[in-house]
Amino acid sequence: MKLIINGDPIVFAEKQGHISQLLSHLQMQQRIVIVELNGNIISKSAYETTLLSDGDRIEIVHFVGGG
Q1: Which end of the chain is more exposed for a tag (fewer CB within 10 A), N or C?
Q2: Helix (H), strand (E) at residue 23
Q3: 55: phi > 0 → left, psi -120 to 50 → alpha, else beta; which?
Q4: How far, in Å, CA of 50 to CA of 48, rounded?
């Protein structure tokens, strides 16, 4: 399926995937992130159950520490 992530088109191999699978695919499953799906912020507790569809627009924000 084709997704738009942070403005960039990608092809996600899963035909029906959910947010946690996408984060794993992007190697971001261990990071603290905020995910917005088609303009709606998704709670972390819903990452396992929120299905993605072809053409979805996803914004992923992750935090970077420094000092």
Answers
A1: C
A2: helix 19-25
A3: left
A4: 6
Q: What is the pLDDT of residues 23-50, one digit of tens each?
A: 999 998 778 899 999 999 999 999 999 9
Q: Is the dihedral of CA 33, 26, 37, 66 positive or negative?
A: positive
Q: For 54, what's the count of Cα atoms within 13 Å in the CB-facing half-sphere? A: 3
Q: pLDDT value at position 67?
A: 64
Among 42, 49, 56, 45, CA closest to 12? 56
Full-model pTM: 0.86
pLDDT at 31: 80
